[in-house]
Amino acid sequence: MFLERSLRRVVVAVMRELSGPIPVNIGGGRSYNIHLVPLARLDSLLREVRLQRGPCVVVTDANVAGRWLPQLAEALDGWDPSVIVLPAGEQTKSHASVRSVYDKVLAQGIDRQTPVIAFGGGVIGDLAGFAAATLLRGLPLVHVPTSLIAQVDSAIGGKTGINHAAGKNLIGSFYQPRLVCTDTSILDTLPSLEWASGLAEVVKHALIADTQLLAYLERSWHKVQSREPATVRTMVGWAAAVKAAIVAEDEKEQGRRAILNFGHTFGHAIERVAGYGAYTHGEAVALGMRAALSLSARLHKHFDMDRAMSLVCQIPVRYPLSSQPVSVDALMDAMRYDKKASRGALRLVALRAVGQAYVTDQVTRDALLAAWAAAYH
Ligand code: GLY
User: Fold this and answer.
1) What is the model's pLDDT at position 139?
2) Cβ distance 79 to 215 under 8 Å?
């Protein structure tokens, strides 16, 4: 109920005045804004949150730096940035990368007012966020997300961390940024695979919590696909507002925030079985959502699966599961890793109706097998 009310308020505000910031109210008087503005506004946004011009640390990757670093440098006119460029890709979310960030930052001399600017996609955001959370027990963190997934999901809500040989995201903390500066025009140069990966999270946000966003995506899909600028801006702002409202209810994933994992338990199993890197995260989630929708239809006989499935099936996926040498047994087996993470019970996100997600641990093996069968189409 509360989610519905707060969502409606936030989303109405976003739609009325897209130039206004989207608040992330995480409770205890802590709040920050997501600004949908050109990158050139960064300096004034930093000063609005009382970060004074001086040294700052920029963490980015080689792809983003190659294309957008000059624009960022211009936006930081008056600052003294030291730029750390890391290799692009998931392997950068490692102990070794964090250590190299620590070494470089500590060698140059910083104080507790030195902001860390995460300029990149989800990997850079998680890694730079973790470094900011731990250096001097916490430096001001600023997200400047450059991928669709980061703009609508990972830069919002304070999850930071790195991977470990034992699994992904096993080391990290919740650490909220001072602000998020989102320039949707940066998405113009995003490779199509990464664009599709982000679309999976946008569709997920709509399916779990916002039927009006779903309707917007349905009627604007061709403009979404062609990245028409005004449509992209509306879509990003809307999806970011959905994420902000969910995080505001449950900052540390004690309950409600878990609905953001819709399609993810199935998706993680696909990534694990196909081998990390075979699918993008978004492709695995898109396939995982097919399974999760089928499960929802089995649990709720009035669930409008056709509507939801037709949008999910628009998300480009290079290799359907049916073209892969991946067995359902292996996928069922792989789901046990998520089961271990939640004390033995396999917790899945299902939809009662489009826009109404909940978490359940009451799923039979037969229901899971049927859900996997749906993902194979
Ligand atoms: N991406 C899921 C979450 O932030 O909770």
Assistant:
1) 98
2) no
Ligand 1 atom, smallest distance to 159 CA: 4
Three-state SS at 179? strand
DSSP 3-state of 320: coil
> 162 to each of 103, 142, 180, 261, how far by Cα in Å?
17, 18, 20, 18
**In testing the pocket of ligand 1, which one of 159, 250, 359 has its CB within 8 Å of the most ligand atoms?**
159
What pLDDT band is residue 321 in, cutting at 50, 70 and 90? confident
Query: Which two structure tokens, joined as six digits, stand for 118?
Result: 């995460």
Q: 153 alpha carbon to ligand 1 midpoint, in Å?
A: 7
pLDDT at 308 over 90: yes
Q: Give 9-68 as a 3 state SS string.
A: HHHHHHHHCCCCCEEEEEECCEEEEEEECCHHHHHHHHHHCCCCCCEEEEEEEHHHHHHH
User: Could you give the CA distance from residue 80 to residue 361 in angstroms, rounded to a whole number?
Assistant: 51
- Please determine, for residue 276, whether its predicted confidence score (pLDDT) is greater than 70: yes
What integer is the mean pLDDT of 128-146? 98
Total residue count of the chain as it appears in this document: 377
234 CA to middle of ligand 1, Å? Answer: 21
Q: How far is the CA of 76 from the centre of ligand 1 (A)?
A: 29
Which residue's CA is the closest to the ligand 1 atom numbered 2? 260
Q: Average of pLDDT values for 205-213? A: 97
pLDDT at 152: 98
Ligand 1 pocket: which residues have CB below 6 Å? 153, 157, 159, 253, 257, 260
Mean pLDDT computed over 116-134: 98
- What is the CA angle 297-303-306, rounded to 5? 80
Mean pLDDT of the chain: 93
92 DSSP assignment = G
